[in-house]
Amino acid sequence: MPEFLFLFIIVTAGTGGELCVSRAMKVVGEVHDFRPAALVGFVFRAMRVGWMWIGIAMMTLAFFSLLAMLSIENVSFVVPVTALSYAAGALGAMLFLHERISPQRWLGVAIVCAGVTLVWLSRR
Amino acid sequence: MKDSPGLHLKTYVLIFFIVLFAPLGNVLLSKGMKGIGSAKNWVPGDIFHVLASIITSGYIWLGIACLLTFFVAYMLVLTWADYSYVQPASSFSYAVVAMLSYFLLGEAVPPLRWIGILVICVGVFVVGHTHPRSTEEP
Protein backbone atom coordinates (compact mmCIF):
# COMPACT_ATOMS: atom_id res chain seq x y z
CA MET A 1 0.00 0.00 0.00
CA PRO A 2 2.75 2.57 0.66
CA GLU A 3 3.51 2.64 -3.07
CA PHE A 4 0.15 4.36 -3.72
CA LEU A 5 1.01 7.08 -1.19
CA PHE A 6 4.47 7.52 -2.71
CA LEU A 7 3.01 7.72 -6.21
CA PHE A 8 0.48 10.35 -5.05
CA ILE A 9 3.27 12.45 -3.50
CA ILE A 10 5.50 12.05 -6.59
CA VAL A 11 2.69 13.23 -8.89
CA THR A 12 1.32 16.10 -6.77
CA ALA A 13 4.51 17.45 -5.19
CA GLY A 14 6.53 16.83 -8.37
CA THR A 15 4.04 18.62 -10.61
CA GLY A 16 3.51 21.43 -8.10
CA GLY A 17 7.27 21.86 -7.78
CA GLU A 18 7.78 21.99 -11.55
CA LEU A 19 5.01 24.56 -11.91
CA CYS A 20 6.65 26.75 -9.24
CA VAL A 21 10.06 26.43 -10.95
CA SER A 22 8.48 27.24 -14.31
CA ARG A 23 6.88 30.36 -12.83
CA ALA A 24 10.26 31.38 -11.36
CA MET A 25 11.93 30.88 -14.76
CA LYS A 26 9.43 33.18 -16.43
CA VAL A 27 10.37 35.83 -13.82
CA VAL A 28 14.11 35.34 -14.55
CA GLY A 29 13.57 35.69 -18.30
CA GLU A 30 14.85 33.99 -21.46
CA VAL A 31 18.52 32.92 -21.51
CA HIS A 32 20.51 34.16 -24.55
CA ASP A 33 24.09 33.75 -23.22
CA PHE A 34 25.27 30.17 -22.56
CA ARG A 35 28.83 30.96 -21.39
CA PRO A 36 29.64 29.42 -17.95
CA ALA A 37 29.85 32.77 -16.12
CA ALA A 38 26.51 33.83 -17.56
CA LEU A 39 24.96 30.48 -16.53
CA VAL A 40 26.23 30.91 -12.96
CA GLY A 41 24.68 34.38 -12.92
CA PHE A 42 21.46 32.87 -14.21
CA VAL A 43 21.40 30.34 -11.34
CA PHE A 44 21.96 33.13 -8.77
CA ARG A 45 19.17 35.20 -10.31
CA ALA A 46 16.87 32.18 -10.15
CA MET A 47 17.74 31.61 -6.48
CA ARG A 48 16.49 35.11 -5.63
CA VAL A 49 12.97 34.22 -6.76
CA GLY A 50 10.70 32.90 -3.98
CA TRP A 51 8.82 30.53 -6.28
CA MET A 52 12.14 28.77 -6.96
CA TRP A 53 12.55 27.78 -3.29
CA ILE A 54 8.95 26.59 -2.96
CA GLY A 55 9.48 24.54 -6.12
CA ILE A 56 12.74 23.05 -4.83
CA ALA A 57 11.10 22.08 -1.51
CA MET A 58 8.23 20.32 -3.29
CA MET A 59 10.58 18.58 -5.74
CA THR A 60 12.77 17.40 -2.85
CA LEU A 61 9.71 15.79 -1.24
CA ALA A 62 8.87 14.15 -4.57
CA PHE A 63 12.50 12.97 -4.91
CA PHE A 64 12.53 11.08 -1.61
CA SER A 65 9.17 9.53 -2.46
CA LEU A 66 10.69 8.44 -5.77
CA LEU A 67 13.59 6.81 -3.92
CA ALA A 68 11.13 4.96 -1.67
CA MET A 69 9.10 3.82 -4.68
CA LEU A 70 12.27 2.64 -6.47
CA SER A 71 13.11 0.48 -3.47
CA ILE A 72 9.81 -1.37 -3.99
CA GLU A 73 9.17 -1.46 -7.77
CA ASN A 74 11.24 -1.67 -10.98
CA VAL A 75 12.37 1.62 -12.52
CA SER A 76 10.82 0.68 -15.89
CA PHE A 77 7.44 0.67 -14.10
CA VAL A 78 7.94 3.54 -11.64
CA VAL A 79 9.11 6.23 -14.06
CA PRO A 80 6.39 5.72 -16.71
CA VAL A 81 3.53 5.66 -14.17
CA THR A 82 4.71 8.98 -12.75
CA ALA A 83 3.60 10.41 -16.10
CA LEU A 84 0.19 10.65 -14.44
CA SER A 85 1.51 14.13 -13.76
CA TYR A 86 0.85 15.02 -17.43
CA ALA A 87 -2.83 15.64 -16.86
CA ALA A 88 -2.09 17.51 -13.63
CA GLY A 89 0.71 19.44 -15.35
CA ALA A 90 -1.41 20.58 -18.29
CA LEU A 91 -4.23 21.64 -15.98
CA GLY A 92 -1.80 23.41 -13.65
CA ALA A 93 -0.06 25.20 -16.55
CA MET A 94 -3.42 26.48 -17.74
CA LEU A 95 -4.74 27.51 -14.33
CA PHE A 96 -1.56 28.50 -12.48
CA LEU A 97 0.74 29.79 -15.25
CA HIS A 98 -2.09 31.04 -17.52
CA GLU A 99 -0.52 29.28 -20.50
CA ARG A 100 -2.73 28.76 -23.54
CA ILE A 101 -2.81 25.06 -24.38
CA SER A 102 -3.79 24.23 -27.96
CA PRO A 103 -6.22 21.39 -28.75
CA GLN A 104 -3.34 19.52 -30.44
CA ARG A 105 -1.32 19.64 -27.22
CA TRP A 106 -4.32 18.37 -25.26
CA LEU A 107 -4.61 15.50 -27.77
CA GLY A 108 -0.93 14.65 -27.29
CA VAL A 109 -1.27 14.71 -23.51
CA ALA A 110 -4.34 12.44 -23.76
CA ILE A 111 -2.41 9.90 -25.89
CA VAL A 112 0.49 10.00 -23.42
CA CYS A 113 -1.96 9.28 -20.59
CA ALA A 114 -3.38 6.29 -22.54
CA GLY A 115 0.18 4.93 -22.77
CA VAL A 116 0.63 5.40 -19.05
CA THR A 117 -2.55 3.37 -18.49
CA LEU A 118 -1.11 0.48 -20.52
CA VAL A 119 2.12 0.62 -18.52
CA TRP A 120 0.08 0.48 -15.32
CA LEU A 121 -1.77 -2.60 -16.63
CA SER A 122 1.59 -4.31 -17.24
CA ARG A 123 2.22 -4.42 -13.50
CA ARG A 124 2.40 -7.98 -12.23
CA MET B 1 5.22 37.20 -31.06
CA LYS B 2 8.90 37.34 -32.15
CA ASP B 3 11.26 34.35 -31.72
CA SER B 4 14.91 34.80 -30.74
CA PRO B 5 17.43 33.32 -33.26
CA GLY B 6 17.75 29.53 -33.07
CA LEU B 7 14.78 29.11 -30.74
CA HIS B 8 13.90 25.67 -32.08
CA LEU B 9 17.54 24.46 -32.21
CA LYS B 10 18.38 25.37 -28.62
CA THR B 11 15.05 23.92 -27.48
CA TYR B 12 15.81 20.58 -29.15
CA VAL B 13 19.39 20.47 -27.82
CA LEU B 14 18.27 21.00 -24.23
CA ILE B 15 15.42 18.50 -24.57
CA PHE B 16 18.05 15.97 -25.75
CA PHE B 17 19.98 16.63 -22.50
CA ILE B 18 16.74 16.19 -20.55
CA VAL B 19 15.84 12.84 -22.15
CA LEU B 20 19.38 11.50 -21.65
CA PHE B 21 20.26 12.57 -18.12
CA ALA B 22 16.88 12.12 -16.42
CA PRO B 23 16.58 8.39 -17.31
CA LEU B 24 20.25 7.74 -16.56
CA GLY B 25 19.80 9.39 -13.17
CA ASN B 26 16.69 7.34 -12.41
CA VAL B 27 18.38 4.07 -13.42
CA LEU B 28 21.35 4.86 -11.14
CA LEU B 29 18.95 5.71 -8.28
CA SER B 30 17.15 2.42 -8.89
CA LYS B 31 20.45 0.52 -8.81
CA GLY B 32 21.32 2.21 -5.53
CA MET B 33 17.92 1.68 -3.91
CA LYS B 34 17.74 -1.98 -4.97
CA GLY B 35 21.05 -2.47 -3.14
CA ILE B 36 19.82 -0.63 -0.05
CA GLY B 37 16.32 -2.15 0.07
CA SER B 38 13.12 -0.61 1.44
CA ALA B 39 12.27 0.20 5.04
CA LYS B 40 10.60 -2.86 6.56
CA ASN B 41 7.81 -1.21 8.56
CA TRP B 42 8.27 2.48 7.68
CA VAL B 43 8.87 3.31 11.36
CA PRO B 44 11.35 6.15 12.20
CA GLY B 45 14.21 3.77 13.08
CA ASP B 46 13.96 1.89 9.78
CA ILE B 47 13.61 5.12 7.79
CA PHE B 48 16.72 6.59 9.49
CA HIS B 49 18.70 3.45 8.67
CA VAL B 50 17.63 3.68 5.00
CA LEU B 51 18.46 7.42 4.86
CA ALA B 52 21.93 6.71 6.27
CA SER B 53 22.48 4.08 3.57
CA ILE B 54 21.24 6.49 0.88
CA ILE B 55 23.72 9.25 1.69
CA THR B 56 26.66 6.81 1.58
CA SER B 57 25.69 5.17 -1.71
CA GLY B 58 27.85 6.02 -4.74
CA TYR B 59 25.09 5.08 -7.16
CA ILE B 60 22.69 7.50 -5.45
CA TRP B 61 25.19 10.38 -5.72
CA LEU B 62 25.90 9.58 -9.38
CA GLY B 63 22.16 9.52 -9.99
CA ILE B 64 21.77 12.87 -8.23
CA ALA B 65 24.57 14.35 -10.40
CA CYS B 66 22.75 13.20 -13.55
CA LEU B 67 19.45 14.57 -12.26
CA LEU B 68 21.09 17.93 -11.43
CA THR B 69 22.37 18.10 -15.02
CA PHE B 70 18.84 17.34 -16.19
CA PHE B 71 17.45 19.99 -13.83
CA VAL B 72 19.74 22.76 -15.12
CA ALA B 73 18.81 21.90 -18.73
CA TYR B 74 15.16 21.87 -17.67
CA MET B 75 15.41 25.28 -15.99
CA LEU B 76 17.15 26.79 -19.02
CA VAL B 77 14.56 25.57 -21.51
CA LEU B 78 11.71 26.81 -19.30
CA THR B 79 13.00 30.38 -19.59
CA TRP B 80 11.62 30.55 -23.14
CA ALA B 81 9.41 27.53 -23.78
CA ASP B 82 6.01 26.75 -22.25
CA TYR B 83 5.89 24.26 -19.40
CA SER B 84 2.99 22.53 -21.16
CA TYR B 85 5.31 22.01 -24.17
CA VAL B 86 8.47 20.98 -22.31
CA GLN B 87 6.84 18.44 -20.01
CA PRO B 88 5.24 16.29 -22.76
CA ALA B 89 8.24 16.70 -25.09
CA SER B 90 10.55 15.34 -22.42
CA SER B 91 8.49 12.16 -22.12
CA PHE B 92 10.83 10.45 -24.62
CA SER B 93 12.72 9.76 -21.42
CA TYR B 94 10.19 7.00 -20.64
CA ALA B 95 11.43 5.00 -23.64
CA VAL B 96 15.04 5.67 -22.69
CA VAL B 97 14.51 4.61 -19.07
CA ALA B 98 12.93 1.30 -20.18
CA MET B 99 15.85 0.62 -22.54
CA LEU B 100 18.45 1.48 -19.89
CA SER B 101 16.67 -0.63 -17.25
CA TYR B 102 16.62 -3.57 -19.68
CA PHE B 103 20.24 -3.29 -20.83
CA LEU B 104 21.94 -1.97 -17.68
CA LEU B 105 19.85 -3.47 -14.86
CA GLY B 106 18.56 -6.59 -16.65
CA GLU B 107 14.95 -5.80 -15.72
CA ALA B 108 12.23 -7.81 -17.42
CA VAL B 109 10.07 -5.35 -19.37
CA PRO B 110 6.74 -6.99 -20.38
CA PRO B 111 5.43 -6.45 -23.96
CA LEU B 112 2.42 -4.47 -22.68
CA ARG B 113 4.80 -2.02 -20.99
CA TRP B 114 6.73 -1.53 -24.25
CA ILE B 115 3.41 -0.91 -26.04
CA GLY B 116 2.44 1.62 -23.38
CA ILE B 117 5.77 3.39 -23.80
CA LEU B 118 5.30 3.39 -27.60
CA VAL B 119 1.89 5.03 -27.14
CA ILE B 120 3.54 7.62 -24.89
CA CYS B 121 6.03 8.36 -27.69
CA VAL B 122 3.15 8.81 -30.17
CA GLY B 123 1.72 11.36 -27.76
CA VAL B 124 5.10 13.05 -27.68
CA PHE B 125 5.15 13.18 -31.50
CA VAL B 126 1.77 14.93 -31.51
CA VAL B 127 2.92 17.44 -28.89
CA GLY B 128 6.24 17.97 -30.69
CA HIS B 129 4.44 19.43 -33.71
CA THR B 130 3.10 22.36 -31.71
CA HIS B 131 4.95 25.67 -31.37
CA PRO B 132 7.25 25.85 -28.27
CA ARG B 133 5.67 29.14 -27.20
CA SER B 134 1.94 29.49 -27.63
CA THR B 135 1.41 32.02 -24.86
CA GLU B 136 1.69 35.74 -25.63
CA GLU B 137 4.54 37.50 -23.77
CA PRO B 138 3.44 40.24 -21.34
Low-confidence stretches of chain B: none
Distance between the termini of chain B: 10 Å
Give the low-confidence spans of chain A: none
The residue-averaged pLDDT of chain B reads 83
Q: Per DSSP, what share of the residues of chain A sits in E-state strands of 2 or more residues? A: under 5%
SSE string of chain A: HHHHHH
Account of the protein in words:
Chain A is mainly α and 124 residues long. Chain A has one domain (2-121). Chain A is 78% helix and 0% strand. With 138 residues, chain B is mainly alpha-helical. Chain B has six helices and no strands. Chain B has helices at residues 7-36, 44-55, 58-78, 83-89, 93-104, 111-128.
How would the blueprint of this fold be written?
The complex is a heterodimer of chains A (124) and B (138).
Chain A (H helix, E strand, L loop, with lengths): L1 H27 L7 H12 L2 H21 L4 H7 L3 H11 L7 H19 L3
Helix pairs in contact in A: 1-3, 1-5
Chain B lengths: L6 H30 L7 H12 L2 H21 L4 H7 L3 H12 L6 H18 L10
Helix pairs in contact in B: 1-3, 1-5
